[in-house]
Every structure is written in C-alpha cells, then in structure tokens.
C-alpha cells in the first residue's frame, strides 16, 4: 500500500519530495479512518456484550462497570494498538516525526491505562457502598491514595519516554527534588495518614453526626476523601473539613448517642430560694391531692411522724425534727412524672437533681433520655416536659426565678 501510492505519484509526474509528503498524508488519513471505524465498532460490540451479560447476571457489579464507562475505555485499546503498529510505516520517510508520534502514542497508552484503572476502582467503590459492611467506610480516600501513586508512576514513565532515558534512571535522579515532591503532596500525605488513623480507630464513619466548632460544622458526614471530609449541616449547607483535622483538633461525634437509642435531655429551672419552706400538716394534706406524690406523702409523712414521736421532738416549732419541704416534694413529683412519661427511655439514666445554689436561686435539673432521637421530635418532647414543669411549680408554693425589669435596668 505504501509503495503503491508512492509509485503512483511518481508515475504521474510528482517529485520524490512531494510524493513522500503526499504518500505520508494519504497513509495517515487512511490509518486514522481505519482506527476510527474500528474504535466505533469495538465500542458498539463491547457495549452490547457487556449490557447483555449485565442483564442476565444477578450481581450489580457488572452494571456498575458499565455506568463507570469501563467497556468504552477498554474499546480504545485495539485502535491504539493499530496506531502504534502502523505509525512506523506511515512515517518511515520522516524519522523525526515518527519518533514524536510514537512517544505521543505511548503517553496516550499510559493515560488510557490510568483511565481504565480508575473506572475499575470507582466501580469497586460503588459496589462496596451497596454492602452494609462497607457503607460507612472511607473507601474513596484509599482509592485516591492508590491513584496518586499510579499517577506518580505514570508521570515518571511519561518523562522517561520524552527524555529517552530508562524509567529507573529517571526515578533515581529524583532524589534531589524529593523534598519538593513532599511539599507539593503535603496535604495528600497528611490526609492519607489521617484516613488510616480515622479508619483504624473508628473515629468517624459516613453517616455519623459530628460537631466541629472550629470549622462551623454540625451535621452528618456525607463523604470522606483523602483530603477532605464533607459534612452536611442541619441547614443543608455543606462544610468541608481537612481530613487531618480529625486527628489534630477536637470534635464531637454523636454516634454513641445514636447507638444508645436515646437522646439526652439536660435542662434545669431555677427556683427562688425564698419560696422554699417546711410543710405543715395542712400543706401535706393539700399536696396529697396531687396523684403522683400522694402515695409518697402518705408513706413519708408517717415515717417522719414516728421518728419525731420516738425522739419526743417539740413540733410547736416547725424547724425541729425531721420535716418535708415543698422543694423536696416537688423534686419527687418531677422524678415520678419523668419515670412515667411515655417518651422517656426508661433503661437509661433518669433523675431529677438539685444543683449548686446560684445568686439567682437553686437550679433543679432534669437529666433523662428521650426515646426519639429525631431533632424535631426531641425538641417537642423536651418542650412538652418543661411546659408541664413550669406550670406545676405554683402548685407546690414555689416560684421560678425571673429577672425583674427594675433589676435588669440597674
């Protein structure tokens, strides 16, 4: 074919120089057309075959391979081999151009190999994400690390091809610039180390709710890569955190709460100290009408009366002996109320406790866990509980501290 076109051009009066150029152009056009046709046919065949196999198999992995364009990338191999094989014949009269084209095709072959490898790795990642065991693992970060090493090898190979020296000679010559390479890939190296530590120590998983005040993140982890961790905040904004920040800074992971099945309620009301008093017999009889403390008052008042009688306590002065207080009875009321509340998780810590006195009064804290962890429902449960707490205070002759306007203005 090559000599036929050349001889034909010479017979038609073309000079040898012109015949060489025209012969090269004709062969090049013919080679490109053949490569294009083969590439088109190969893609169609591979697509049909792979689609047919994917429909007949039960696994989703082959479908994922097609989605990540593996058959299309593999189809480019045959045309590329044809180009590499016939380029020396097309440019046999132009050795300098032949050398450039051959090097270019070798570079394209390396890039195509990287593209095929990336399609395979992404398919593996997507497939593993469908498995519950790997759904919350940072697989993509490991793929990124592997691809970085592959890209480094590819870049070294490309430079070795362009410069004409062997691959190993080129790699050994890079010792002098290793510090620059480390500087360039600093974040990737830190991210790689952080990804390993995060996975080994099980610090963060995809789907975890984390709070990272330094970066303003408060929401669910949606992606963990080599360099960054993406957090979707509750207002639907996305916060990007450097992966290595997870091991260098402090953050809060709420996974323990999620796994426990409850969400903590820890809130207090401040009771005015001046409203706390000992209970008289009249007060006790009045409070016995409150169902949640009726049995408690019957039992407790009898115990206290027996104790005071045994010790011959003078009860003409109320402070003498043992006594019930409205504050203590209210605390018992709230304890019983929480224990019987349908939205409170009974197998977790549950208590109503008195905190250290403050200049404003005495805080009475409810410490419990709601059985519903969803934010909206959790807030409703907590609001419902404290609506009842604030409304019931007056039934025990107590008052909640409020900053008066006169005091606030001073």
TrEMBL record:
* Principal subcellular localisation of the protein: membrane
Q: Which domain of life is it from?
A: Bacteria
Q: How does it sit in the membrane?
A: Multi-pass membrane protein
- Which InterPro entries does this one have? LSM_dom_sf, MscS_beta-dom_sf, MscS_channel_2nd, YbdG
Q: Give all residue intervals belonging to the Mechanosensitive ion channel MscS domain.
A: 187-255
Q: Which Gene3D superfamilies match?
A: 2.30.30.60
Question: What is the official name of this protein in its record?
Answer: Mechanosensing system component YbdG
Q: Name the Pfam families on file.
A: MS_channel_2nd (PF00924)
